Amino acid sequence: MRILLVNSPVSRVSPHARLSPPLGLAYLAGHLRERGHDVHLMDLNISGYNPKRFALALARTKPEILGISAYTETYPNALSIAAHAKEFDPSIHVVLGGPHPSIVPLDTVIQQQVDFVAVGEGEETLAELVAALEVGEDLAGVRGLVWKQGDTPVVNGKRPLLEADAVGPPARDLLSLEFYQDAFNVLTARGGCPYRCPFCSASYMWGGRHRPRDPKAVANEIEVLVNEYGASFVFFVDDIFTLRRDWVLKLLAELERVQGAITWGCGTRVDCVDEELLRAMAAHGCTGIQFGVESGSQEVLDSVKGIAKEEALQAVRWAVAAGIRTTCSFMVPFPQDTEDTLLETFAFMKTLKDEGAELLMSYTTPYPGTVFFEKAGELGLTILTRDWSEYDAKSLVMETRHLTVAKVEQVVAAEAQRLGLTRSA
Question: Domains in the chain and their CATH numbers?
Fold first, then answer.
């Protein structure tokens, strides 16, 4: 079948949106192409979303199935894309997937322009859906699918999580890699952050099961990127790259075959590194690391992150000493924050900056699927809007029992200027 996969774009143009290609869609494309389908892929964060140009793309590719990937921020645009596709050709089967539709599948599938929602990992769900549509089979056996019989939503059984290396390589050749800042992003594990931070929906999506890939397979993929694509830098997009220390050391040993050909970066927690590991990473090409510190108040950290400020300070010192460019990201406000704890956060940010860290800050956002969203009332949070396009971490969409939007903005403006702070989103 002819399939068009689309990455729904942000509403506000942002360098962050063009940082790296949509790896999840590339995996989907590769999986479907292996099954003989004619697959096209569009990242509308790169090309821009213009309905007339999108209609031309539909005319060129003539898709029988349109798959759209969306985060919370990009969900409204995903619905617009689906509507334009149905106006162009009502016979196109529209499938939505990605974090937001996966967390609110019933709210998504009841939209008139949406036919199906693929919940969670979409490779096998979409492949089975396409196979069933080709021959007109009943869809009840396609696990992970939410669909409609007439106007009635139908929720099929949950699909088991894939083994880490069960899916072939992503179809990077379908992407215009030259337009991305970090064109070569690599996934070393499937889902599964075991930490249950209340501001993150990862545990809701994956249940905390971490599925690391075979280090040899990861190194093989990087070798292909170096030899066939000319990659000189890769970024490991995992939430916590160093979650399993022994696994990281095995990967470093495998990377020796491309030693000197690439450098790389990653993100992790401050309590998942040590001095020896960071030195080993630097010796094997690591040039950048990002730590999610989140707050400079120990009281707040105890409630939302479970790390100690001293751990963050030590991790930054180790990384900087190892020669790794070190970035620390923070969010404000948290439910327990007061004006005093916000000032603590900015004071700690200055401490880390003085140690050599770069700083990023975003606004805490109560995404669907997070504890902050599901238990907002209990936590004293007032969610100010359900306009999902505002959920971009650059906009304040909630107030706390202690802090109004005006007060947060006042403190942030004064302290950010003093620190020369870079906004992360």
Answer: 2-155 (3.40.50.280), 184-423 (3.20.20.70)
